[in-house]
Amino acid sequence: MNGPAPLPAWRLSAGVFLVALTTLALEILLIRVLDFVLSPRLGYLVITSAMFAFGLAGLYAALRPLRDGADPGRRVTLPLVLLGAWLVLLRPALNAIPDVLPALPGGLARGVGGGGLLCLALLLPFFLSGVCFAYLFSAFAPRIRSLYAVDLAGAAVGCVAFLPLMRRIGPGGLMLCGAALVLVAAALMARRARWTAAAVVAAAVLVAAPFASRGYLDFRPWQNKRQVSRAAKEQRVEHREWDPISRIDVVATGGPRGARHVAYDGGNQSTYFFPYDGDQARLRAEVLAGRPVAGSFLRRAVLVSHYLKRDSGAEVAVLGSAGGQEVKAALLFNARRVDGLELVSAVVRLGRERYGGLIGGVFADPRVTNVVGEGRSYLRATDRRYDVIQIYSNHTTSSLMMGNGVGTTELLQTVEAYRDYFGHLKEDGILHVNQNYYPRVVATAAAAWRRLGRADFARHVLVFERPGVDVNPTILIKLSPWRPAEVDEARTFLAMADGPSVPAPRLVVQPRAGAETALAPFFFTGELPDAVAAVFGHPCTDDSPYFSFFRAAADAPDAPGLPYHAMRVLTPKSMGQEWWAPTSRMSLVLLGLAALVFSLVIVIVPLGFSPAGRARWPGRSAAMAYFACLGFGFVLIELVLVQVFMKVVAYPVYAYSTVICSMLLAAGAGSAGARRLGIDPTSRWKAPFLGILITGAALWLGYPRLGELLLGWSTGGRIAGTAAAILPLGFFLGMAFPLGVLALARQPAGAIAWAWAMNGLFTVVGGIAATVLSIFIGFRLTLLAALGVYLLAFGLFALVRRAAARAGAGAADVPVTIVPAVASAAAGERDH
């Protein structure tokens, strides 16, 4: 039976490229959107939904495989059209879900219903794109190396394509642009003139729509985080902007000269532009007279380190300059130089330009240097030493900064970070930190102090805490021992009122011998007893920077003999979290087990009813296990590298994009290069696995030294160095998947789709495992575990190729169905 004319190679490649680009960009955009409309804790839901949807797509394609004479291009046209339509409807659909929820029964039913609608909205686009990949990879299996290379190249471009347009049209506009690309891909696959013309017109309209709009095609927050949604309804939002790192809303709090609330991602975090007329003498007199600082500063604790260094010509570094309060405090007490570092460029620009007059021009002061960047990399690149280094509760809620969205990493709160801080302080300098979990701050800083060969750390630490639950206690660490007069000055200054009915903080950790203190002596040694570490965790390191993940469970018993009197601060429930919050180790283990069981029950079992599942072909179990290992191992390596290079590249979005883009481009080059190198299931098949193990081991051994070296380079140098470190490993990683597809090319119809499903499903499991393992054993050992998974894949592929060879020798005994496109693709592979 003669089938349709083969799909031209350029149409196939262009279509796959566009779909891959749109799919990866959509994944990142949805992470950003969920940060804004809901919570940063849900960023991982997007990644999980995408990979699980790919598994479901493989299931669908395995249950309904292509038959003889079927046109694979025509089979994927409808899913592509539906994908384009859903990308147009996705923003209205997400905005409508909060309106649907009140119609559902209350309590658990409402929560399950809302979660189900959200998951459906997230699953559908990735399912449709996954169906396209499953069919095309199955139909054009002999061309898989070049096709997979195009797929990975498109995904790599998708990692960065949104960056230049994010501020201009936002995620809503970018989704319309993605819909346009998908419709063009549908026209390429359909090969009909009418389709092509209609797609071009529709694509032009979709691309023009967001640029023609006066504002963003925006998303609606589901929660009234810090009253931002209410302010939007009352039209008090003066400025909104999708910065590459965070969505920024500037809210008027009352009057033309009132403070402006700067909300990050809809209110996940906040800072303020406080009105200031620039009269330094007046404001300083009011502060020193003990008048409430509310309206000029968030709290008096912002100023204390600068007060202690008043009129000394201090040099100051502020890590997280935000709305300028810390910078203003330093200038108020006559600092000679202030280096203000801030990750979100929009906040810096707004503070200098639109709201510069409101805040008294503090960012434009000639003594101030504004840097859009990350604190540790900036310190590592300079030889300057400071009188004050200030970090006011500085962390980001961006899921991209977390790398995988499960468990918050805080690279400013590790032993290595504190070594950097201490190394850039003058001998009488002060490190000023406001952080809620101060026992772990002290223990982590003590470990850094010890590594530097210093002693008597307890003589260098002050902690002030408000009565009750203080979410930002004040920690002051001085490189030289605190003198009694300095302790008294700090206590007296902070005892002045912050505002009406606001209790003054009390000194809970102090160096005076015999004085009451909240922390036992072992907190200052750098090593905690096991019973204490079971509650607080060991000092946090770069290898496992989960600073807030330290209590085994919300109801964990207090450490024996621990004299810390404010344990309630450290329980997840007291911080407004539920029992399943990421601070519970058991919750992550249960999440991983649930994902595994769900995959087995919902997807793997039904695959047994597919034609490929019912057929008894040699090596079936080994093949499916092989593709499961590839999905599990690849995402394990990917997410670990995102985390370890996050510190190096420093800018969260740049770090995420650099690592993912480098891996995908290198993997694409490896897939394309495999054909030229003669790597296939019958020859040189060991090379990819040996390459993965050798380059992975080299990266494992060399990363710690490389990371330290790159930290001192420029931003461009750090990005280039990161890419160069990843490329060799990525090159060999890209060979393993097409090698497996080639081994299944003569197996029953649907076998490759089944393999695609296994790959996607175990990517979900691997993503959860990456977090669980990195928390328990650290990033380096997790990377080593990932290499072990590829070693297992090496052994499994030996079984797969042996079975494939037997199948080739006795093909008459195996029920094989291959569409004509495969035969034509074989010729295309030679000429492509």
Span between termini = 26 Å
What ranges have pLDDT less than 50 throughout 5 or more consecutive residues?
Answer: 552-584, 810-832
Number of strands: 12
As a percent range, the share of strand residues is 5-15%
Shape: globular
Question: Which bin fits the share of residues in helices?
Answer: 55-70%
Helix run count: 27
* Oligomerization state: single chain
Strand order in space, largest sheet? 7-6-5-8-9-11-10-12
Structural class: alpha/beta
Round the mean pLDDT to the nearest integer and report it.
84
Radius of gyration: 29 Å
Major sheet summary line: 8 strands, mixed
Give the arrangement of secondary structure elements:
Elements: H1 9-37, H2 43-63, H3 72-100, H4 108-139, H5 144-161, H6 163-190, H7 193-212, H8 228-233, E1 237-242, E2 247-252, E3 260-264, E4 269-273, H9 280-288, H10 304-308, E5 315-319, H11 325-332, E6 337-342, H12 345-352, E7 368-372, H13 375-380, E8 386-392, H14 399-402, H15 415-423, E9 425-434, H16 438-451, E10 461-465, E11 474-478, H17 484-495, E12 506-509, H18 530-536, H19 585-607, H20 611-614, H21 620-649, H22 652-676, H23 686-710, H24 715-743, H25 751-777, H26 779-809, H27 820-831
Q: Would you write up a description of this structure?
A:
β5, α11 and β6 form a beta-alpha-beta unit. This protein starts with 8 loop residues before the first helix and ends with a helix. With 832 residues, the protein is of the alpha/beta class. α19 (585-607) runs antiparallel to α25 (751-777) and α25 (751-777) runs antiparallel to α26 (779-809). It has 27 helices and 12 strands. Residues 552-584 and 810-832 have low confidence and may be disordered. The strands form 2 sheets. An 8-stranded mixed sheet has the order 7-6-5-8-9-11-10-12, with helices on both faces. The protein has a 4-stranded antiparallel sheet with strand order 1-2-3-4. The chain has helices at 9-37, 43-63, 72-100, 108-139, 144-161, 163-190, 193-212, 228-233, 280-288, 304-308, 325-332, 345-352, 375-380, 399-402, 415-423, 438-451, 484-495, 530-536, 585-607, 611-614, 620-649, 652-676, 686-710, 715-743, 751-777, 779-809, 820-831, and strands spanning 237-242, 247-252, 260-264, 269-273, 315-319, 337-342, 368-372, 386-392, 425-434, 461-465, 474-478, 506-509.
